[in-house]
Amino acid sequence: MTNHKFHIKKGDTVIVIAGESKGKQGRVLEVLRAKERAIVEGVNLISKHQKPNAENPQGGIIKKEASVHISNLMLVDPKTGKPTRVGRKRNDEGKLIRVSKKTGEEIK
């Protein structure tokens, strides 16, 4: 498992900067730390064949999000709505917080 921190976490709004889904924007549903990948809502959709089950009694082909490598994602600045790099800074209580490199705005 990797030890370094990622610039995104679950619930962040990100934009895809490389790959087939380049330019698409979505919310991070899950971060797969061991694989250095993330699943983003509405991005990198694949067709999956599914057997009938309790949730889906019909079965068939469903569209599902596949993971995207973390390096291909960039956080969206909360102020401008444009992609930004992420920095870390200590706040008043001495806790590390994420800040936007473009505007200096704190990322919640």
Spell out the blueprint of helices and strands.
Blueprint: E1 13-16, E2 25-32, E3 37-40, E4 45-50, E5 60-65, E6 67-69, E7 73-76, E8 83-84, E9 86-90, E10 96-100, E11 106-107
Antiparallel strand pairs: 1-2, 1-7, 2-3, 3-6, 4-5, 7-8, 9-10, 10-11
Compose a concise summary of this entry:
By secondary structure, the chain is mainly beta. About 0% of the residues lie in helices and about 45% in strands.
CATH topology of the largest domain: SH3 type barrels
Q: Please outline the major beta sheet.
A: 6 strands, antiparallel
Text of the CATH class of the largest domain: Mainly Beta
Mean pLDDT: 90
The gross shape turns out to be elongated
The secondary-structure class comes to mainly beta
Low-confidence stretches: none
- Spatially, the strands of the biggest sheet line up as 6-3-2-1-7-8
Number of distinct beta strands: 11
Number of domains: 2
- How many separate helices? 0
Span of the ends, CA to CA: 26 Å
CATH architecture of the largest domain: Roll
Q: β content, as a range?
A: over 45%
Helix and strand element order: EEEEEEEEEEE
Radius of gyration: 17 Å
Helix content: under 10%
What does this molecule look like?
The protein has 108 residues and is an all-beta fold. It is 0% helix and 45% strand. Strands 6-3-2-1-7-8 form a 6-stranded antiparallel β-sheet, with no helix packed on it. A hairpin with a 4-residue loop joins strand 2 and strand 3. The radius of gyration is 17 Å and the shape is elongated. The two termini are 26 Å apart.
